[in-house]
Amino acid sequence: MNDEKLPERIQDKEAKTLRQVNPGAEKWLYRPIQCLNHGFVYLADYLGDDNSIAQAARVSYGEGTKKVSEDRGLIRHLLRNVHTSPFEMCEIKLHCKMPIFVARQWIRHRTASVNEYSGRYSQMIDEFYIPKASALKKQSQANKQGRSDEELTPEQQERVLQLLKEDYQRQYANYQEMLELGLTRELARIGLSVANYTQWYWKIDLHNLLHFLRLRLDSHAQYEIRVFGEAIARILRDAYPLTYEAFEDYRLNSIMLTGPDLEIFKKLGLSEKFNGAEAFQLAMERLKNKRESEEFVEKLKKFGLLK
Length: 307
Fold this sequence. Notes:
- The protein is of the alpha+beta class.
- The protein has helices at residues 8-11, 23-26, 50-58, 68-80, 100-106, 154-180, 185-188, 206-216, 223-239, 241-252, 259-268, 276-287, 290-302, and strands at residues 33-35, 39-47, 91-99, 112-116, 137-139, 147-151, 197-205.
- The chain starts with 7 loop residues before the first helix and ends in a 5-residue tail after the last helix.
């Protein structure tokens, strides 16, 4: 191939790198975003930019690089129509520090490469998650795995925080004593709380990262992992602005309508007035499931059809 046909950055023999440089990603390299009381997220490395996605898509039909305006339209088309493989051409590597219970939720996304801090090789650090008082909520009666909007009383909040701090101090003191007795690190750590902090390097492609964010930025996600999702989203907005814009429009702020949902909409008639009780009753008749019916009513509220 002649030099004239190579991209400008490759023709430039004085260039410091021949790789695609992403200015938005460069902005976040090695800049930690604090999460919770001791945690953080920072961008350790990346591969590609919005243009890389568009180029990967165009290779399917043999066309080269186009204008940025055309890249935007193509990226939106890809995301809107669930053409996912071009987004797998981009990757980011993050260094993250989080409580162990957050890490155990996080690791359920099995589409990344992970290397975690080891309590077998190294001593666990004396850092534990202390929630803010405002995060101490009562158990939700509707969602068995989440918290409600109802806060504990100030007296209850103070007592919970006191209990946590006392437990953490006792656990870590016992941990250190067992180490001093000569017990192996891999056993001494077993008495520590899942609120103890761990850290890892986490590398993932952009397609699977967007799926992670779709779930972890949702208002129903646990607050503690949502904080980390919001930090990662800040990085992506700058690193892949065209992709993130399309993600917000077609994934994050979208509503999925099921086949039964569409049937109910047709019966309700969007031009007619109806109340929540009527909509819920109709949903129950079709779906025969209380939770699914409640989710349908929530969709009506998002459409502005119910208060």
